[in-house]
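Sequence of Phage virion morphogenesis protein (Candidatus Erwinia dacicola).
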Amino acid sequence: MNGLQAFDERLGALIGNLSPAARKEMARTIAKRLRAGQQQNIKRQQAPDGTPFKPRKAPARKKKGRVKREMFAKMRTAKYLKAKGSADDAVIEFTGNVQRMARVHHYGLRDRPARGGKDVQYDARPLMGISERDIHIINDIIMRYLE
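Predicted 3D structure, token representation.
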């Protein structure tokens, strides 16, 4: 977070000079671009730092002809992964019950996959985060709005 704090301090005064409508538009643009990057990371089955997710413990093929879909295929859609921007912040978040499921997988918590089932310890698979590439994207967008 120290890198983000220094980044925030340097550009805070310049961003404060923008009108609230311009800040809101800029935050919305940043959130949409970051959401696209997070969706690509989830599609590639890798953490924001580039390390691959740990594979499932259960095989992907149980019966002949049946293949489970990749992990988190629906979670990465715009229906569940929302991007919002206001004059003060840009937010990317999971919504509804997906938020709980994302938290369990992100931190590697225990959960019940079925209502009456046993608790399962999930491996940590970080779904969201900011990488160096994301910081450069944010920098570029801010510089474009400040020109």
